[in-house]
Amino acid sequence: MQFEVLQTDSKARAGVIRTAHSEIETPVFMPVGTVGSVKAVTQEMLEALDARIILGNTYHLLLRPGHELVRSLGGLHKFISWPRSLLTDSGGYQVFSLGDLRKLAEEGVTFRSHLDGSLIKLSPEISMEIQTALGSDIVMCFDECTPFPATRDEANISLELTGRWARRCRTKFDDLHQVENAPDQALFGIVQGGVYQDLRRKSLDQLREIGFEGYAIGGLSVGEPKEQMYDITEFIAPQLPDDRPRYLMGVGTPQDLVESVARGIDMFDCVMPTRNARNGQLFTTFGKLNIRNARWVRDERPVDEECKCAVCTRYSRAYLRHLHISGEILASILASYHNLYFYLDTMKRIRQAIRLSLFEEFRLEFNARLSRGQAEPGFD
Amino acid sequence: MQFEVLQTDSKARAGVIRTAHSEIETPVFMPVGTVGSVKAVTQEMLEALDARIILGNTYHLLLRPGHELVRSLGGLHKFISWPRSLLTDSGGYQVFSLGDLRKLAEEGVTFRSHLDGSLIKLSPEISMEIQTALGSDIVMCFDECTPFPATRDEANISLELTGRWARRCRTKFDDLHQVENAPDQALFGIVQGGVYQDLRRKSLDQLREIGFEGYAIGGLSVGEPKEQMYDITEFIAPQLPDDRPRYLMGVGTPQDLVESVARGIDMFDCVMPTRNARNGQLFTTFGKLNIRNARWVRDERPVDEECKCAVCTRYSRAYLRHLHISGEILASILASYHNLYFYLDTMKRIRQAIRLSLFEEFRLEFNARLSRGQAEPGFD
Predict the structure, then answer these.
(1) Which residues does residue A17 pair with via DSSP β-bridges, in sequence order?
(2) Which residues of chain A neighbour B62 with C-beta distances below 8 Å?
(3) Where in the sequence numbering do the catalytic residues of B fall?
(4) From the CB of residue A108, how many other CB atoms can be counted at a distance below 10 Å?
């Protein structure tokens, strides 16, 4: 994997990541394909949307269909027929969401499958094994996602574990990639430390000492106030190595993307565009629109009059509302497509603005429109 | 609407229906778009599949979103953004499926909505009003679908009612189409009479006396043995007027289509390709394949190695199985697309065979392959 910053505009960066499978212009949003499918859209649609990289969840793929099966079928790219780049998470985030169903030790985590209750183990080494079997382009370190709230002590103990695990990940990853025919992969470290600036800095120092191909900020967007998320990002993002991609995990709303790019972030992922689509929440230039609202029953306008996506150029709010109310699968397909278009198009506009050194103007206009929309009935 | 028979090959006919919205080559299969959406596929996909006509269900559209809403938004074509032809059924079939929830009288039928329990009336006149509001290209008479089994007396009483209703439909339809700006529509009559040949003939005579733009065979595929369905079709289809389209309602399996074309049928509709797709049943040249079967877990082949559809040229059985087992929406999308392709491609091959006077050869080969496939494990 190669990474190059092409242009900076204040703290915002426009660059390009090159993997064995695609060229990814940054800042980039990565649609989430949990179990090997970005929910409710086809791979053809993702190509039409010009998605260059999507995410797969190690936890879900481990349970079903299993990484050994995926490996035997030629890896995740081939299995799901996705020729462009893939990033896999480490499984850590999902495991820690299991709460009482998991048992944490220095060695790793033991948990029960939510599918059949079987006992499963994850550790830095096992996570590296799995992600190597999956053959993703970008592999994430197995970390402990520090919950919110966490005391300073808890956050400190947690980041120390993440640091020790990061070293074990690096070692195992490097071992696995010394053999011939190992997939061409890059390993990213994950900064923890909760909402404590000095702990974030400490975590980053540990990771830098080990050395990674990219650096992620984990443990945000886990329930903390939005201002705190922005503050921590603002504090730590500029300290991440300049010459490596900076990835803010699990974030966020369209506004979060703009605000985090302003703070120096290059990569994002979030289930929001697809999950909210299935619940009837559509993203527009003027805010979120709940398509189930009776307000739209006779509305012949597209979801977003300024949107050029295949959904907005063909289908009306009235029809989309009808599909959602009727529980039609097409409702999920069209809403997911539109929301992904909105997210990817927003990132494209961000990249263009940075290249023209107009990012601050873009950001002001983006936020102003959102405020105007939120004053209108039907948007929030 | 215009109809022309271009070629006959024994009893099989190849022709073309021209509506205000599209040219429809026959024999044709019409995908069912119950509530204004062919389940799990987009209108773009239907266009890619070269579907020229799809079906809408009056009963479902009446309940939601309501025909007055559809009319006020410019009709069903505009509402669902489907520029090609539409056929609407009369609502009769669904109402009669309600059993005890409906009350039948000479005037019409009263029933309770399955959605909110409200009391709704359907009659020949109301059905014509609704279908005119929807603006479909082909309107079906409001008939009583005689159940199976039915005694001779029951079938006779039922067909007589259907006959009287057919006359009322014709009168009301003609009244509605004398006004300016009425949609360009054609009205089809429906032959009833159960499994009794002389009653079928009697029903047809009544309809011919009234006169319709096309003739349908109703009350088949309602539980009678397959041989009886073929026999009734063989008996009555050739007696339907030569110069009008002949439509066998609610049929059927791919083999049913081939066998019914051999008996003189031009038009079909059925939920089978889309409904079975959602349950994991895929149609192939060699029979039905249940994609959930553990047999396919590592199978890298496409669903049908001879199929040229967008699903078979990209995705493996192993991946499709994984999607179905995981309950992913993409499973329904891809399976529905493939099954519709298989149905529409079968109809295309049928048309080509008839035009080359090779239909009997096609039919023998089609049935022979099916038998070969059914001898293989995994197909039925």
Answers:
(1) A3, A24
(2) none
(3) 89, 269
(4) 20
